[in-house]
Please model this.
Amino acid sequence: MTTKPTEPRRGVASSETAREINRDILLHTIHLHQPVSRADLARLTGLQPSTVSVIIGQLIEEGWVLPGTLGHLPRGRRPTFVTLNDRHVTLAVDLRPENANLAVVDINGKILGRDSIPLSAQGGSKAEIRKAIQNIARAVRPMRAAAGDRQFQGVGVSVSGRVDQKTHRLLFAPNVPWAQIDLHTELEKVLETPIEMENAANACLFSERWFGNFGQVSNMIVVSVSEGVGTGLLVDGHIVRGRDDMAGEFGHMPLEESGPPCGCGNTGCWETFASNRAGLRYYRELVQESKLASFQELLDLAKGGDVRALRSIDKMMSYLARGLSMLVAGLAPEVIIVVGDCTALWSRICPLLESRLIAKSFTSHTPRVVAAMDGDAARLRGAAALVLHKVLFGQAGFK
Ligand SMILES: [Zn+2]
Model:
């Protein structure tokens, strides 16, 4: 890990909350630069070396940080490097329309175990959703047991839909059946652990901050492309939440009102042109006799060089770029992170997205477009990051 000097993310505080803020700054800096010495932490954060020593001492006592190996410097000094204690783990749950993916994830984002629970039928009934929740609880037991004496900090849940952060209700989720029940309450009951639940694209913003390469970026868009299109928006260092935490539903901006019907009740929304479903539809338009049942099958064909599959995905991506160019014009992000199965074809779709964005740009500053660093695990790491953020970053951190 590099230890290049960086500006502290937040100013060094002098108020009564100083210790908490400084603790957040230090945890974040350790995470980015570990293993790292106390002297480097002082240099990287701008905090006094004595303050660093006191707080690191507390974090070691609380078990969040481990004093690590001795470093080697010329002239005989041997500083102790500190790291985050990877005995802290979370259970991550990613709720998809047809299944729930589960993982045990450590404090550094390493996935220690995975499982997947199918829903019995697409568009499942309340009874089926409840049965799936029981199955999740059953699957979690051996995963927890396999994690041995590691300390579980909680459960993070990412879901396609918007989650009211006060009531924890899933407010808007036209593409997933999970909203039929009080998901937060029922999951908390069967898992007997506090739960942090969040929109999948927002969860991926947390993940990029915790585990990714963009911890210092203040203006970033995550676009999650699956059955629908969702966005998570980081503007000037804050997640954009809006009324009832509903902000980010750009997937439902009307792109062409004469377009196909959308799950939200309108027609021609961006996601009806740029989602996995749209990609499949384009293929079926080209191949009338198509028996393709899933987007994964379309991807497999495209990877094998099937021209019509590639054309279908190119069309989907040109619509993705069209919506993104509107977001870029309105929000001026530095980075756009694409999350979704389509990133399996990144070497093809990245230049396509970039060239479209450049063509629509009115400044010389077009954002970087990158695939989520961890492909299909992005939403799971996002779910884990929600818990770590809650446990470690208290009220002073990234909102
Ligand atoms: Zn819609």
Observations:
- The CA atoms of residues 43 and 347 lie 39 Å apart.
- The first strand starts at residue 36 and ends at 37.
- The pocket of zinc ion is lined by residues 252, 262, 264, 266, 269 (CB under 6 Å).
